């Protein structure tokens, strides 16, 4: 399994870009920055384009998904596009009854609660992923030397929606299931790992230059449960893509106690949320990997002087790590003024790497 010679990482377009250089521990020509959820509701051009089209529908229209991916790159001069899609798209493409309800998030028609529910899950096929590949090809043709970051949900975060059937705060359903019925849990986690792994591989093979695994809700687990019930499935998801050789990033929120275990599932870069300063994250990881993060999204609405001082503090805290890609400590809040994001990018690019 290798990337084709015409892939942007292989034909010279993105291999030396600031983002990929920093992910690989080298010295970038400028400080790379992108924002989780940079595409989406903070942009008026996104809201206009999406009018009358459902969220999942917009992800499955290649021209629309490509255009939404490109909008923040044009506007902010960020160092990466993040593919516009959603972690539940592989469920949808497999034929699972799922929708994204405005103001709520992913909702399943039939939550997955028992071993029989898991056994009845449909299997995702390569053909079903064609609209994803097509959208990635369209994006990459426009991006030139700017890398596209592909992504997928980690098995725990995906399974959290599948078991609860909707967003939840404490993720009690999947946490109960892993102890009460470990076999059913493992089967579900493996199903989610393969669906996410195939989704990410489709993006990388079609032209994405890096891949991020989002385990947004892993922070609801202690280290023991994470290591025993979750990490093996996350490693399984990554086995679908590791041989391709593109840099892989692993991110979750509330994961300060899990950073080492999250690195050890087999990634090149660890994403850090806003709770833990990067110098402390680097200490916990023993200086072993480049870091990504961790501007506090709450400060995007603070006065500029406050935000500027915070961004400079994040840069200083990341200085000891073997590489640092600026990002937020979670997604862009929908009410963010996009002009502030542009200004943050200018500030970051103005400081010598
Ligand atoms: O109508 C809309 O605009 C819906 C809002 C929205 C958007 C813009 C959803 C519903 N998903 C997305 C796109 C999306 N989702 C992207 C690409 C855009 C970008 O980053 O620029 C990505 C990477 C995701 C990934 C995603 N979806 C995650 C992991 C990242 C994270 O934010 O933690 C998660 C947990 C989801 C589930 C999801 N999808 C949508 C919502 C509102 C949620 C969260 C629901 C909850 O709180 O549990």
Annotation keywords:
353 residues, alpha/beta, TIM Barrel, two-stranded antiparallel sheet, 15 helices, 9 strands, 45% helix, globular, binds coproporphyrinogen I
Give the termini distance in whole angstroms: 34 Å
CATH T-level fold name of the domain at 38-274: TIM Barrel
Bound molecules: coproporphyrinogen I
Question: Into which percent range does the helicity of residues fall?
Answer: 40-55%
Query: Count the helices. How many?
Result: 15
Low-confidence stretches: none
**Gross CATH architecture of the domain at 38-274:** Alpha-Beta Barrel
How many strand segments? 9
Average predicted confidence as pLDDT: 97
Q: How would a crystallographer describe the biggest sheet?
A: 7 strands, parallel
Calculate Rg over CA atoms.
19 Å
What does the overall shape look like? globular
Quick overview of this protein structure:
With 353 residues, the protein is of the alpha/beta class. The protein has helices spanning 18-23, 44-50, 55-59, 62-76, 89-94, 115-119, 130-143, 155-164, 172-180, 182-206, 223-239, 259-264, 278-284, 304-317, 338-350, and strands at residues 81-82, 98-101, 105-108, 148-153, 210-214, 248-251, 269-271, 291-295, 324-328. The protein has a domain at 38-274: TIM Barrel, CATH 3.20.20.
